[in-house]
Hints:
The chain is built from nine helices and eleven strands. 28% of the residues lie in helices and 20% in strands. By secondary structure, it is of the alpha+beta class. It has helices spanning 2-17, 38-64, 87-93, 129-132, 137-140, 172-175, 220-224, 253-258, 323-344; strands at 68-72, 99-107, 115-121, 157-160, 163-166, 181-189, 192-195, 198-199, 267-274, 288-296, 307-313. The strands form three sheets. A five-stranded antiparallel beta sheet has the order 1-11-3-9-8.
Amino acid sequence: MPNVRCSQETTNSIAVLRPPNTAFHQQRLATWEPVWTPRAIWPIMMAVATVFLSIGLPLLYVSYNTPEHVLDYTDCQSIEDPSRRSCAEIIDHSPGTVCSCSINFTLDRFFPPPVYLYYALTNFYQNHRRYTVSRDDGQLQGVLSETPSERCRPFDFAKRGEELRPILPCGALANSLFNDSFTLTILTSPQLRTPVPLAGDGALWPHERGLKFRNPQGDLRLLLSRYARPPAWSRELWELDPDNPDNNGLENEDFIVWMRPAALPHFRKLFRRVDHLGKTFERGLPDGNYTLHINYSYTVKSFFGRKSVIISSSSVLGARNPFLGWAFITVALVTLMFACFLYVF
């Protein structure tokens, strides 16, 4: 009898816990499952292709209608050499020399503001891992040490006079700093050339100067004189921008821009922007005859590269870059091809 009572109690408990006998609770509802046949799939792929094509074509249109002018100055001829040798030859025979050259060119269209000046390098692999990590982030933040990071080798110590001193900033990335400079003039009359005002601010993110790159506290020149400059540099760290003392040291804008490694071997970096405050250039960069003056000191022969200056306006998508538009169009065409294939078969 006790066993029977226990069995009845168990049965009653199971009955209480059992879900209601409905189609929803017992999972007997009718279901629908699509059958992915070619006839069902090809309209969807056609719709996807249409969407991507409608996005890619406007992107491509905006990109190719953004004014841009490219000047390759790798083989620019020196204006000071009697034999008119190229600056590349002069620097190859006399490393560390600063060569002056100029290029005359014509802008055949108006460049609306804002207008930017970029420098571009080809065949330069800034994305090489050992090159990218060859830096001392603590040093760049103004925490000076007599023993640079091991990652900086072999650009960690150098001779200053007869004494071996730590390099500041150390590493291969800082040692290869781009040091060509440019000035731009426009021919406003047969005998008058007007300089195009170029401003150097606006290329940095808010967190970079003062957080990732910070000068040490105190007299900059006195503090940095205890260190050696990178071997490839022709100027001291406190002399990077002689015209603007606040733009020197580890907070120099050109230095910070260079220290952002590029992802691809062909890249451009912002050099200056056109200052549109003056009357001549307040509406943009007018069409006309221009001259680009170059202080040429950066060699690209060792890695078979090319150098160029790019003048470009900015659109709602930024500078001219057709990659995104072509990417959308490529996906649209591939999807359209598969849709046609499924429709036929």
